[in-house]
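Replying to the earlier thread about multi-chain prediction with a worked example.

Input:
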Amino acid sequence: MVAAELIVTDLAFGLMLGCVFSVVAHGLNMIWGVVKVVNIAHGEFIMLGAYGAYFLNLFAGLTPLETAPVDAAIGLLVGYAFYYAFLHRELRNKETITLQSEMVTLAATFGLSLFISNLAIILFTGNPVGVNYNPGTLQFGYLHVPIAALYVAITSVLIITGTWLFLERTFIGSAIRAYAQDVTATELIGANPAKVASLATALGFAVTMAGGALLTVWIPVGINPLMGALYAPISFVIVVLGGPGKMWGSLVGGLTLGVVIDLLQAFTTAQISYVAAFLILIPVLVFRPEGLLKR
Amino acid sequence: MPILQADKISKNFGGVQALRDVSFELPESAVMGLIGPNGSGKSTLLNIIAGLEKLTSGIVKLDSRRIDNLRANRVVGYGLAKTHQIPKPFSNMTARENVAVAVLYGRRNIHSPSSALQEAERTLSLVGMGLRKDAPAGSLTVQEKKRLELARVIATGASVLLLDEVFAGLSPEELKDSIQLFKKLHEELGFSALVVEHVMRAVLNLSHEVIVLEEGQVIATGSPDEVVHNDKVIEAYLGSKNSAA
Amino acid sequence: MIEKPGPTLYGLFIVMALLAVAALLLGVAVSSILLLLLIYAALAYSINFITGMIGYVDFGHVLFMAIGSYALATLVSYYGANPLLGVGLGALLGLVFALGIGLVILRFRGVYFAIATVVLVLAAYNLVLQFPQFGPGGEIIFNLTFQPLATYFTIWTIVLIEIVLTYYVNKSRIGFGIRAIKNEEDAASSVGVGPQTLKLTGYMLGGLFGGAAGAVYAWSISGVTAGPAFDFTFSLLMLAMIIIGGVGTSIGPLLGAVVVYIPSYFLLTTVAQAQPLIIGLLVIIMALFLPDGIVGLLRRSNEHLRLVLE
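Result:
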């Protein structure tokens, strides 16, 4: 019976981890799906969100759950700034993103990624830090579930559901969805493309940074300036698995990856488990580039 | 022997039947118009013939050679080239360089860039774009871009041209000029063409034969005159039983 | 069908001649500085083939550098081979890996290709750490007699070959096809260009010369370590060089190498993070405001320069 218990425990942890992975990738998914831009510096903003949780915990005693909305607010501002600095010129007056624009944004965000991470090393030093947040564990039979992980998983799912509701049920949300399908159509429904795109980007960053805060629960000694290098590829793989632009794809991809990584870690080192998970990307791109979700 | 033969082309997009058993023959040096209401599958048909999309079943023969399993660039090598509905110029290259690419990679066996550029210049003059040969393609007007598309496919040396709405969005004056130009080119160069069009004046003026698609199926073929008076065609377009005299 | 070379090529030959003379006359201190500059230039020309010309952003180009470094380090350290053999092996392996990888990932659209290259570097890095043959922490060190001129002229030759190749590819039929793909990949195939072959060729050339440059780099520092060998900072430097110089051009990579290298040389003595920080900033600014680089800027500013610079 022990093997079964192990598997169930692994599965439970994998799913909870997967939920956090989902929200961490969700911001990338939103931006990629709407403005069709891939932010190579995505990992760095996760890192900044995590550091936000660390500092707010250090100086104001806030838990990661409480930091998340603060990070989200900061993320909104950062997102708007990012849109106007990097994307506005490339996207306005264009029906779709050209190959040249793609190269420009890829290169620029790559530069941004290295800029932010190295700046972080200088400012925060390379020493890994962590947030102490442990409200205890719940016991379900043999299953010991840390309450922190549970809260964070629930919050993650709420965030994803919330964005879905926003996109489906509000006018501006449908404007965003319209923009994602056809930029010129956005004007037809009376929305301003620049406003729509900038809002989508801002929301994406808000979710990303909130995700970074929530993530800290899983990495008690892992907050460091270079953590973006791990969570960016994770996010990319999740978005590709779920299909860029498909909002529930973040959850599907995230849960899949969370479970796979957790199960793999039962057999090999953490490093290999991550690498194996990343390599899943290649066959998916070869055989099903539109993602695993149908439709 | 018809230069282009389509035999029961069908295309299925995950449940949506875009084309069903479409068959036709294009005689050499003929111009065939392909018309039909929006969504009838005209663009899909062109894409399949040109090798840009795969058909679900059916055969396409170019000069008796099967091309339905070939990719677009190979199809060009055998002598069939298609323009784009929304022009796709190589924006950062001049008009002449755009056409030179077609000369170098078509079926003409010209591999020297300098010869290709000369040939490109000639082709541009043919379509009336001689003066704009050094303009960056991205800065051309829509009509010029359409002319560039035409120049490019001609420059590949293709004997069969697939033209996707080259007459769309033109003013009456521009339309008249374009129709004249096409007639002149056809006379001089003798290509065969399958022309997808919404602009009836162009189709009726230029086609020897017209084929009508509705919801992925051929509902009529014949001379332009016959087709225009065909009840089924009128109903497809207007949805009514009244025929315009 | 070899056209007469234009002023650009002659200009580049003159620069290379100067670099050769400088090494021979000015002593070891100068030639060591110039050595690293030439390695940077070689790397820039190598990424130029796939990213500059074809437009596929290869974030993982450092992979080929690492392959070359490990090839040379292994050959020299375990088999006592002549380092030139190491360079040859590095080039060969770079080519072969590029072929194998390229066949799979070049079909992806640009963004997916870029991400795939990142994933591959991460995988390779972790793989190397798993195998003790690659030394503890992937570190292989060797002891060679110091032959500054041999190293120097090896990389000098590599850069020269790259310059000539870049120049003639741009002028040739292949150059037209490459530019067509970079502008509008779909339209390119509708006029007969076969994108797969050209993309693969570019990627393989990138792998070949990236491997060669990586091998010389390992030669110059007498070893290789996994962490630095797979460091994305190299990719950033390579991208920075061609973006600053002018993507796809013949002059661009060399020009970019000079612009990036000279300050880097001095920055490295300060905070270690200063180099990627400033280069990152430079890349952002160039990518957003001057995507066709210094060469592009010069060509747009003056009609005469437009015809001469390439």
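Chain C has 14 helices and two strands.

Feel free to reuse this layout for your own posts.
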